[in-house]
Amino acid sequence: AWRKYSVSEFGNKEEFEKELVRHIETTLARSMYNCDEHAAYSGTALAFRDRLIIEWNKTQQRQTFTDQKRVYYLSLEFLMGRALDNAMLNVGMKDAARDGLHDLGFRVEDVVEQEHDAALGNGGLGRLAACFLDSMATLNYPAWGYGLRYRYGIFKQEIVNGYQMEVPDYWLDNNPWEFPRHEITVDIQFYGRVKNYQDETGKIAHSWEDGEIVQAVAYDVPIPGYGTKTTNNLRLWSSKASSGEFDFQKFNAGDYESAVADQQTAETISAVLYPNDNLERGKELRLKQQYFWCAASLFDIVRRFKKTRRAWNEFPDQVAIQLNDTHPTLAIVELQRILLDKEGLEWDEAWNIVTKTFGYTNHTVLPEALEKWSVPLMQNLLPRHLQIIYDINLLFLQSVEKRFPQDRELLSRVSIIEESHPKMVRMAYIAIIGSHKVNGVAELHSDLLKTTLFKDFVKIYGPDRFTNVTNGVTPRRWLHQANPLLSALIAEKLGGHEFLTDLTLLDKLEAFVDDKDFRDEWAHIKTMNKLRLAKFIKRTTGHAVDPNSLFDVQVKRIHEYKRQQLNIFGVIHRYLSIKAMSAEEKKKVVPRVSIFGGKAAPGYWMAKTIIHLINKVADVVNKDPDVGNLLKVIFIEDYNVSKAEIICPASDISEHISTAGTEGSGTSNMKFVMNGGLIIGTCDGANIEITREIGESNIFLFGNLAEDVEELRHRHFYGSFKLDPQLEKVFTAIKGNMFGDAADFSALTASIEEHGDYYLVSDDFNSYITTHGMVDEAFKNKEAWLAKSITSVARMGFFSTDRVINEYADSIWNVEPLVVKD
Ligand code: 26Y
């Protein structure tokens, strides 16, 4: 039924073919006689791009014309993955394309694979932003994303002799999905000094003078909604040397070489995505990136608002800005600066506008991920902003002092400025003070924010400023696109694809849990998806894995708190057990494939050591004839969004095993369950809500609870530390050089045995191993396993980002969809 809403169509495959040939022969200047798969990809992309542009222009005109409140999602990361398949499915002409490509001798699946992932993000936070864009467009919200157009996305990972190597990801050549807007530029200032002067009314005013100017150039990416007329915009800023007076001076002074060098310096601002996730390093270039992007975006938003000629107090009725973590916190300071210094508003009036405009999403409680910038660094780079930050802090502390007199401890705890050497600016505190709502990303996480990290602010502002919005994922990409077979089966049972835009309709599947034919098809689809992954593994690693084995998957960024080390120690334990078995005992073993994937931040040695251990264990296990097919260990190189689309539908069980209280939410847990996989996990992040929705009997939970973590850590340090006996056997094997030189892994074992086991690997090991035993037993009962799989999918309706976006829209943004009538 929604087809009638879709954009101007090719109508049929012949029209698609015509467009394809036209683009290949003219736009690409290539001949159809030597049209390879890549040319077929480019031609198809251009054909679909044309369809997107028309609706995109109309959407933008419509949004300007109706002039209702818009949402701006500020994120330093947008982990988009590939665009073509998404465009085909959202526009709704994939069948015409498939048939047309077939006529020309291509398979649409192969053509789609030619596209380079747009990997402008690290992990969960960046992928969440991409899912949000999809849902905002699908739900017809007038919404823009703002980010940076990195020349290099997240590095490509290669595994060489078991070690991670990083290779730059230069992805911009021939990208058909971006539109340079050379006419949309903003001059961004850095360094310089603040001049105080008296304005006409005699009041002291401030102006920021001198310094350097870098130009921001807009690049726009269309974001089509699924089956709607809305195509929203993602605007990415690219840095370029300013062509202003400043540079001409140098050129004219004959200093050509240094003037060219300055140009290159300007261009490095948007050159590279910082590859750290949850690890703050305080690099000046990163602060430059943040300000560059915030200032360009704010200028753009304010320019758009000013065209409406409304009064400033209407700004928050027209504009909602959401901060994806603290990375864009400078936007708060920048808006205050614009209103004060450029528009001449009084402080209180300006600050009132600012706080009504912003919302802040926190994604982590890990102390090492909280952004702090040194005061001297900021003083140098952004002198006026630092002044404003001090003013915000002064007024805030005065108001706290009034309400809680004589509590000096409280004042120093909540001060934006940390009194360390050097002094540091706490960005999260600016984000809280400058926003009207602060949210966490799953219930436990949001509760922890209120009771630990932001406790004092709850006391000051009351509990209403703090809220929870549990994460989700877009079912268009993570069910329909990643798992076309399952999506088709569900559509057949439910009588259409409406579940893709109302995921709660999945609950109708429960009626078919006992339907024999349905169960068989369900099982068959899982097998097909495992086969697809097995082929991929064969092609990329050379290892043959048996699709009848239990596929056990952990794919995510490598981090000690996510505990891939717990997983690989568990694998070693399993390996040792199998080796100790008689032939008779081996017959009862459920064959397993343990699949790992994920990148380590280049400077994070412990994470790299974990990758090294996984690969060394794989080397030994995979060629051990004692083990054969009973255990295989696979490390999938360069895990990314497009690989996730193959991996998620193929898992029997996936691992979400962070130390309780450390994972904000997790979102791949949702992707796996939505595709009929079960979970082994801790009581952490959104695992808790997943359990509530699907039922305790459909998930394998283990390990200590968040409330006990502090006590356990304390005991490790002040009591005696006793290594779990089964883990001890694992360590003995490692130390006996079973997986190569034990010295390579000594930091890892020592972090547990000698340095307090901060992530409670030893405390949770027994429970983890026992629970894996239960997984094996459960997997033997195919029928019961299938019932769990189907029931879980049926109950996953809550985890669509459509629900998430509606919650943000209602409780934080106060925006309405802009629905078009025909
Ligand atoms: C400050 C800088 C080094 C930094 C860069 C990236 C800090 C954090 C990050 C990325 C954080 C991230 O990806 N967080 C994840 O966000 C997901 C979406 O909310 C959560 O599901 C996940 O639990 C959380 O780790």
Walk me through this protein's architecture:
This protein is of the alpha/beta class. It has 3 domains: 1-66 and 86-114, no CATH class; 67-82 and 117-470 and 807-813, Rossmann fold (3-Layer(aba) Sandwich), CATH 3.40.50.2000; 549-793, Glycogen Phosphorylase B (Rossmann fold, 3-Layer(aba) Sandwich). 48% of the residues lie in helices and 16% in strands. It contains 33 helices and 24 strands. The strands form 6 sheets. Strands 7-10-11-4-1-12-13-17-18 form a 9-stranded mixed sheet. It has a 6-stranded parallel sheet with strand order 21-20-19-22-23-24, sandwiched between helices. Strands 14-16-15 form a 3-stranded antiparallel sheet. Strand 23, helix 27 (687-694) and strand 24 form a beta-alpha-beta unit. The longest helix has 30 residues, at 37-66. The two termini are 13 Å apart. The model is unreliable at 1-8 (pLDDT under 50). Bound molecules: ligand 26Y. Ligand 26Y binds at residues 122-125, 128, 276-280, 363-364, 369, 371, 441, 471, 663-667, 685.
